[in-house]
């Protein structure tokens, strides 16, 4: 992997009204992508290691990959067109004797790509051109984390005092918190951020990330 991409981690996944905010970044910078509620819930469950009675969509995809000896190698958020993020899902597969390895690059929504990466503990990368263009929301995330820590401490104190107040209600983000997150990119829906595909740029972007494989 060359210097045209930056590795990031999922720093937080927070529910909003009808959508989720996924915070991605590292020590230098954090940015946010808004995704639909169902995928946001799946990412959150993977991160918390929540077991499910029946496999959901991303579980099924993971089981199919495993059945064919394949895995998610990495995810690259490789382009942003206006307010729409684009991503590539890189999958590798080996034959039963492990003598032949095939790498496949697929166009995918960032939300699905992130879900699969979290499920399979695969790295997530961001193209430098995307990294340089997104707004840094590190301070906003730090404030949210601080409020979360304060809420947790308040819940623990209440529990020690025998307070019957529901801990989940104490930890829930207030409307002001949610509005502060939603206000990061006012006027843009989660669909505007996440439903884009490569379109006419697919071939150009494919060649760019073949170079990045080196």
Topology (SSEs and partners):
Blueprint: E1 5-15, E2 19-25, E3 30-36, H1 37-48, H2 57-67, E4 70-81, E5 84-94, E6 101-108, H3 110-119, E7 124-127, H4 128-133, H5 138-160, H6 167-171, H7 175-182, H8 190-194, H9 202-213
Helix pairs in contact: 1-3, 2-3
Describe this structure in words.
By secondary structure, the protein is an alpha+beta fold. The chain has helices at 37-48, 57-67, 110-119, 128-133, 138-160, 167-171, 175-182, 190-194, 202-213, and strands spanning 5-15, 19-25, 30-36, 70-81, 84-94, 101-108, 124-127. The protein has a seven-stranded mixed β-sheet with strand order 3-2-1-7-4-5-6, sandwiched between helices. The longest helix has 23 residues, at 138-160.
What percent of residues adopt helix (DSSP H or I)? 40-55%
The major β-sheet equals: 7 strands, mixed
Oligomer: single chain
- How far is it from the N-terminal to the C-terminal residue, by CA? 6 Å
- Name the structural class: alpha+beta
Strand fraction band?
25-35%
Secondary-structure element sequence? EEEHHEEEHEHHHHHH
Number of helices: 9
Record field, number of beta strands: 7
Strand order of the largest sheet: 3-2-1-7-4-5-6
Kindly state the mean pLDDT as a whole number?
A: 80
The coarse overall form would be globular
**How big is the Rg?**
19 Å
Uncertain segments are: 167-171, 185-193, 195-214
